Fold this sequence. Notes:
Elements: H1 6-19, H2 21-25, E1 29-35, H3 54-61, E2 64-70, H4 76-85, H5 121-127, E3 131-137, E4 156-160, E5 173-176, E6 179-182, H6 210-224, E7 230-235, H7 247-250, H8 274-298, E8 305-311, H9 332-335, H10 350-353, E9 354-360, E10 369-371, E11 375-376, H11 380-388, H12 402-405, E12 418-422, E13 428-433, E14 436-440, E15 452-455, H13 471-484
Amino acid sequence: MISLPRQFAIALLTICITCFPSYAKERLNVVFILADDLGWADVGCYGQTKIPTPNIDRLASEGIRFTQHYSGAPVCAPSRCVLMTGKHLGHAEVRGNQQAKLKFPEFNEGQYPLSEQAVTIAQLFQNSGYATGAFGKWGLGPVGSTGEPNRKGFDSFFGYNCQAVAHSYFPPYLWRNQEKIEINKKPIPGREKQLEGDVKASDWIGESYAPKLMIAEAEKFIESNANRPFFLYLPFIEPHVAMHPPKESVEKFPVEWDDKAYRGLNGYLPHPRPRAAYAAMINDLDSYVGRIIKALDKAHLKERTLVIFSSDNGATHEAAGDPHFHVGGADPEFFQSTADLRGYKGSVYEGGIRVPMIARMPGVLEANVVSDTPSYFADWFPTLCDAVGFAKPDGLDGDSLWPILSGKTKTLKNRKPLIWVFPEYGGQVALRIGDLKVLRQGLKTKKPGEWEVYDLSKDRSEQHNLAAQNADIIAQAESILREEVNENKVFPLSIPGVNTTTR
Length: 503
């Protein structure tokens, strides 16, 4: 078999697409929408009653809603690494939110980068002649590093490269590929405190609101690539704090909700109406989903575009500065953001990693279906390979969900265990083996926690620890981890009974 150089292969595919439009029309488009810190029950179709999310709910009514889908990790960067590379946290290169400058002093922003060897799903699309675009928050390597978006499969990138910069919705700049684009001459910081006086939202409003710029770029991408196949990745930043959405968005929600201003004591920016602001961010996120669907409809792409919606981890966790609020002034308890699930962002309990997931493609995916099949971010790489007909590269950890999405089966038989090896927030590890969840916490503390076991089919709130009755499952979990955890010197984690450091 003749192996064509990559540039020549792409040129040949482009000629086929240009000269034979029917060739392009037969190929499936993919749009992957990723929310940031959106809790499992923060949208209407998952039980939210206070925040209207009509566009996300419409996606669910027109497609498949998964009730037991999990993110790749309990926090941003490693979760996105699992999604992009199809490797769970025992094999993933990026297992935490470490800043790139700690290992690469030449960079002053961005997170630890993916290596040159890491292969992303976007690279497979790009190498197959697809247009590829990413608009939102990256977090897998600074511009100029081996992990920058343009070196990991994206023709077009516009947004935040660095998660820390993304704490402000009015940043000084966004990146267009390798070019820094100034958007605010007087940027708003992502963090500040106001200990006394009236808290005014107007004090934290800048000139250009970054999300509006990014969604506009995504719409342009769809319009300009309507006649060729594309992969569009939309890692939006809502509802990650800081909270400073537009005034008109906040005013949609009842004044009576907020009896206490947030003064920044739990980090990020103050806000006079924090509950309304949180709701506004999620409602705005929903409006972006609506705009993407409208752009697809306008381009007559509805029937040949697979749209996926999910979140990178659970809702924002508690903080000690002000007990009335979680980090950044969020109030997930008021909104019941995780329903009855235990834990929040940063935790391997269900509330930290169980996330909404909806997939829609009219004519291919059945409408208004609910699936309770356990699944997670590592599954998306093989799933998309099956959806578009790519050969799967070696080393993927997930199981393809395409048989479920396409209606060939209702559940996955003999699915692999779901694995999380998370060195941050005290050091945690978790596995889901069938209906049983096995986990340990505090592995980097002086007193590591013991194994915990929960039967999620009867106890999704993880209230009844069954470890004493399940020594065999714990032994099985340890055996799996011995096989599935590779050495990672950047993100090491000692797991008692499994290793002394990740081997």
